[in-house]
């Protein structure tokens, strides 16, 4: 079995929990995810099955969309509602000021990853160090926030947000930075991932509704990338080809399918005017 499952993860499940459960449901050990989603968060999680696990890195880099709520006036140890309160602030803000602060966190920015994250420093994940009570210096990393929309709620210190961002962006850090830029602090709650690339909640299934019918064909997994048609004979066992043989333009990568739309390979740019297989499926 090879394909992609679009999961609507429920709160309380880790991404690894979902992988373990689907191994049992689908009867295969070859299952993996394209990027973690916090246990308290819900929403879209992409799961590769069989040979599609080799394609997950191409899904990990797709842009993400999230909704959530920023609670101003309260800072937590994890930057979200699962942590302990570490500071409180008296804050009075207006929606225009919050939107202006959000605009300042939009575009290409540098973001320091939170201590409770899967980023590795010195060979250890930050969340492992955090559980041991160790805090280390973290380098700010470039990320892109394409959109940071803010709406008010019935509570003057709680704002509903929708964020579209590059892979590697921490929405909880955006929430904390938003609070700090308004002269106080804040944290995130009710985070929900609504999309990874073109994969949205509309086609996602909760774990209890997943069976073999939920496994999408391998070619669908790469639908966000340019697609070209070729023959198995042309690709052989993974040939380096001239660009003209695949008739491709740009930087790639490209999903290569046969005349029936079945995925054969993922090709990427190579030296000179050639392309090479990043992953060969056929």
Give a description of the structure.
By secondary structure, this protein is α+β, with helices and mostly antiparallel strands. The chain has three domains: 3-62 and 197-221, Pseudouridine synthase; 64-196, Pseudouridine synthase; 227-280, Roll (Archaeosine Trna-guanine Transglycosylase, Chain: A, domain 4). Helices cover 20% and strands 35% of the residues. It has eight helices and 18 strands. It has helices spanning 15-26, 56-60, 95-103, 126-131, 171-181, 218-221, 232-235, 243-246; strands at residues 3-9, 31-33, 42-49, 64-72, 74-76, 85-88, 107-111, 120-121, 124-125, 141-152, 158-165, 186-196, 199-200, 227-229, 241-242, 254-257, 263-269, 274-280. The strands form four sheets. Strands 1, 2, 3, 4, 7, 10, 11, 12 and 13 form a nine-stranded mixed beta sheet that branches. Strand 5 and strand 6 form a beta hairpin. The chain is elongated and about 70 Å long. The model has no long low-confidence stretch (mean pLDDT 91).
Defining key terms:
282 residues; alpha+beta; Pseudouridine synthase; Archaeosine Trna-guanine Transglycosylase, Chain: A, domain 4; 3 domains; 20% helix; elongated
């Amino acid at each position: 079995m090879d394909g992609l499952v679009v999961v609507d993860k429920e709160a309380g499940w880790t991404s690894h929990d979902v992988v373990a459960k689907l191994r049992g449901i689908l009867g295969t050990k070859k299952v993996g995810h394209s990027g973690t989603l916090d246990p308290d968060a819900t929403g879209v999680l992409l799961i590769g099955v069989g040979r599609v696990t080799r394609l997950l890195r191409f899904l990990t880099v797709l842009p993400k969309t999230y909704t959530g709520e920023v609670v101003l006036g309260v800072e937590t140890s994890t930057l979200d509602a699962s942590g302990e309160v570490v500071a409180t602030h008296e804050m009075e803000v207006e929606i225009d000021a919050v939107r202006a602060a959000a605009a300042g966190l939009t575009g290409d920015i540098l973001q320091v990853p939170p201590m409770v994250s899967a980023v590795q420093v010195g060979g250890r994940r930050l969340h492992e160090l955090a559980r041991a009570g160790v805090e280390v210096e973290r380098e700010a990393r470039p990320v892109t926030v394409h959109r940071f929309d803010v709406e008010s709620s019935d509570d003057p210190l709680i704002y509903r947000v929708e964020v579209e961002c590059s892979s590697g962006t921490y929405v909880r850090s955006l929430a904390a930075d938003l609070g700090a830029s308004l002269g106080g602090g804040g944290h995130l709650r009710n985070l929900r991932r609504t999309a990874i690339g073109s994969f949205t909640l509309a086609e996602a299934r909760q774990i209890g509704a997943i069976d073999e019918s939920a496994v999408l064909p391998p070619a669908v997994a790469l639908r966000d990338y340019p697609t070209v048609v070729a023959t198995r004979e042309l690709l052989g066992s993974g040939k380096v080809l001239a660009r003209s043989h695949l008739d491709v333009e740009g930087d790639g990568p490209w999903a290569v399918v046969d005349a029936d739309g079945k995925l054969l390979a993922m090709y990427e740019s190579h030296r000179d005017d050639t392309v090479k297989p990043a992953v060969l499926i056929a």
